[in-house]
Write a structure and sequence with these properties.
This protein is α/β, with parallel strands linked by helices. It has a single domain, classed as Alpha/Beta hydrolase fold, catalytic domain (Rossmann fold). It is built from nine helices and eight strands. The chain has helices at about 35-40, 70-85, 95-105, 125-145, 150-160, 165-170, 185-200, 215, 220-230, and strands at about 1-5, 10-15, 20-25, 45-50, 90-95, 110-115, 175-180, 205. An eight-stranded mixed sheet has the order 1-2-4-3-5-6-7-8, sandwiched between helices. A hairpin with a 2-residue loop joins strand 1 and strand 2 (about 10-15). The mean pLDDT is about 95.
């Protein structure tokens, strides 16, 4: 299905029925990264996956103003509106996990729980943020050379970070949180442990032998942990 967001087509898919779970992919991926997990999670949940702007089957506008974390969060809210979900478990991988935290910051009343997969909350120091943004700009330059303009704009305007608002919001998170990270994903292992220490009551699961995408490489293990987490929730349909 496609949603018209002021002339930008945003693609999403829905599987199953029951309490809603919205899953956001990482940078450079698409909703397809959750295909190994949808069947297991959709047995009694409405699982919604979507493609961020510049990715997958969503549009890749050439206007830089069409990309920002705020617009991504607004897309997520619009998708929930389109499927009739007042609240949902908000989950995501890598950049999608960061956007999930940003969604909670903007819409705590619509966030029933958080599922954070191999992600981090950003940087408090200007030095750390500058290093991250330099990486994103280098990635954008490579994507420009390959003719992937939309993806490059997403790197420059969504992947980059401007402040520490998301990181500073962690102690105020008051919904159930499951943090999942691969044992071998060293950069995000550190960030995951940090989030687990800052978010009250958060559960941390480290999947042995997994790297940055444990939901793909260790799907059965990942699904079991997420199912256990979902089964403990009482989420409105």
């Amino acid at each position: 299905m496609d949603l018209d967001r002021d002339g930008v087509g945003v693609h999403y898919d829905v599987a199953g029925t029951g309490p809603a779970v919205l899953l956001s992919h990482g940078f450079g991926a698409s909703s397809e990264m959750f295909q190994p997990n949808v069947a297991a999670l959709a047995t009694d949940h409405t699982v919604i996956t979507w493609d961020q702007r510049g990715h997958g089957r969503s549009d890749a506008p050439a206007d830089p103003a069409a990309y920002s974390p705020a617009l991504a969060v607004a897309d997520m809210a619009a998708i929930l509106d389109a499927v009739g979900a007042e609240r949902a478990v908000i989950g995501g991988h890598s950049l999608g996990g960061y956007l999930s935290l940003a969604f909670h910051l903007a819409h705590p009343e619509r966030t029933a729980a958080l599922l954070l997969i191999d992600t981090g909350p950003g940087y408090r120091s200007d030095e750390g943020r500058a290093k991250w943004n330099g990486m994103a700009e280098g990635l954008a330059a490579e994507l420009d050379e390959r003719g992937l303009t939309g993806r490059a704009l997403a790197a420059r305007h969504v992947l980059t970070q401007a402040d520490a608002r998301v990181l500073d919001s962690l102690p105020a998170v008051a919904v159930p949180v499951l943090i999942v990270v691969g044992e071998l994903d060293k950069p995000f292992l550190k960030g995951s442990r940090y989030m687990a220490g800052k978010i009250p009551g958060a559960d941390l699961v480290v999947i042995p032998g997994a790297g940055h995408d444990p939901n793909v490489t260790h799907a059965a293990d990942f699904d079991a942990h997420v199912r256990t987490f979902l089964d403990r929730l009482e989420v409105p349909r």
